[in-house]
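SUBJECT: protein chain
CONTENTS: sequence, C-alpha cells:
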Amino acid sequence: MQSQCSYVYVLYSKILNKFYIGYTENLKERLIEHKSGSTYTTYRMRGFKLVYYESCINKKDATAREKQLKTGYGRQYLRNRLKNYLNSPGC
C-alpha cells in the first residue's frame, strides 16, 4: 500500500505581516479553500500568498514539520529562508 504525500505550506500576509502554517494532502484544493474564504483560520487574512511549501512522504512527517515551523525557531527559520522575498518592495 502506497502512502499519499502530504504538504506543509506557508501563507504570508504582507498587510498583517503574518505567516499561516498548515498541512494538507491536496495543496491546490486547500489553496482554493483559503482564497475563497471558506477556511475559518484564514478568512480574515487578505492579500496572502503561498510563499513556501515542502512535500512529505506521509501525514505524520508533515504534521511534525508543521508543529516545528510553528515554534519561535521555525518562524525565524522561515523569516531567514524567505529574507529576500520578505524584504523586496513588490512582495
User: Anything to note?
Assistant: The two ends are 42 Å apart (CA to CA). The first helix runs from residue 27 to 36. The mean pLDDT is 89. The domain at 6-87 is CATH 3.40.1440 (GIY-YIG endonuclease).
